[in-house]
Each structure stands twice: as C-alpha cells, then as structure tokens.
Amino acid sequence: MSRLLLILLLVFPGGASAELDIHNAWIKNLPPAVPVRAGYMTIRNARADAISIIAIHSDAFSSVEIHRTIAEDGMMRMEAVPTLVIEPDSTVKLAPGGLHLMMMNPAEPTKPGDVLQIVIELDDGSTQNLNMTVKK
Length: 136
Ligand SMILES: [Cu+2]
Prior knowledge:
By secondary structure, the chain is mainly beta. It has one helix at 3-11; strands spanning 21-28, 36-45, 51-57, 61-72, 75-80, 84-86, 90-94, 100-106, 115-122, 127-135.
C-alpha cells in the first residue's frame, strides 16, 4: 500500500463514499417452515445530499427486497420499493407495519442471536455492509 493511500485512509476512515448511519438493524425470527423473514432498521442520512439504496443482497438469503405496507380497501398489502431515497439530513425507519426488508429463503434456519450480514448498494456506486441481529 502506498504511503499516500495509507494517510488518506487514516484521515478519511470512511473514504469518500456516501455512508448511511444505520441503527437497530434486526430480523424478526420465524419458524424454519416459513420461507421469508422481515428486517427492520433506522437509517440516517446526515449528509447534505440525498442518498438512495438501489439494491440489497446477502449470502444468507436468496434475495432481499425493500417493501412498503399499504392499506387498500381495508386490506393490508405489500409492494416492492425498488429505490429507497433517504433525503438529506433525514431519517427513514423500517418498522413493523411499514417499510421493511423482505428477505427470501434463508440459507440456514435462523434463531434469535444470529448475526446475518447484508450488503447495501447505494446510488453513488458504493456499498455498505450491515450486520443484522435475529430477534424473537
Ligand atoms: Cu414484504
């Protein structure tokens, strides 16, 4: 590694990528027979520009989508959100009954306490790894 690069890494530990501050990232545990899990988190964009999540993937699931829950004619249904925009200086919550990650086909049965990693792709081309804890 060049000396300049090393210095840059020390001075700018996050690099120049558009990183989101993500807290309370967790996955609701379900019995092995259920082929999906829902994931929740609080996402903060402290920057002056909007950041969009354009894709999420994980070795622990066959696919991960962002969904929103909408009430229509008294029925609740879910709809995919292909791009989740987090406006500048704002916070988006994924929580039960609202926005959530829909995580398909766990590679292994999940249990409370498991930590599963996902990779979040942002619209600036950067990626962000996130550990999510499985909870009851
Ligand atoms: Cu869903």
